[in-house]
Write a structure and sequence with these properties.
This protein has helices spanning 9-26, 58-61, 64-73, 77-80, 87-90. It has 5 helices and no strands. It is mainly alpha-helical and 121 residues long. The longest helix is centred in the first third of the chain and has 18 residues, at 9-26. Belongs to the CFAP144 family. Its main location: other. This is Protein FAM183A. InterPro entries: CFAP144 (IPR029214).
């Protein structure tokens, strides 16, 4: 009982070429896509503080009081208020240094330096 012979490289290449030719004849390139009308499509609401808005800004441009309030709301707390509003804001409210920084002041800056003791030989 003789089994099926294994095809050689020439036959395998011919089968491969024929398979690719058949696939290319039935291929169709789709360049236009659409939304399925039978599927529900929900558009999420815009973020109110987002910089990118999908809505036109002509209606907001006329209201200058709104724009000023919007810019004031975006400021840092120490620029909005004269005193901290919460106890958490008290930490770091005055962020300016008490003394001006000087990189050459050896009392405050501990740079690495090599001496005769620390030098590797």
């Amino acid at each position: 009982m003789a089994g099926k012979e294994k095809p050689n490289m020439v036959h395998q290449n011919a089968i491969h070429v024929e398979t690719i030719r058949k696939e290319q004849t039935h291929q169709k390139l789709h360049t236009e896509f659409g939304i399925n009308p039978y599927r529900k499509f929900h558009v999420p609401a815009d973020n109110p503080m987002s910089r990118m808005s999908r809505k036109p800004t002509e209606a907001i441009a006329d209201n200058s009081a709104f724009i000023e309030a919007f810019h004031k709301a975006k400021l840092e707390p120490n620029k909005k208020y004269s005193m901290p509003q919460t106890t958490s804001q008290e930490i770091g409210w005055l962020s300016t240094p008490l003394i001006p920084s000087n990189l050459y002041d050896k009392r405050l800056n501990f740079h690495r330096r090599s001496t005769a003791i620390t030098k590797q030989e």
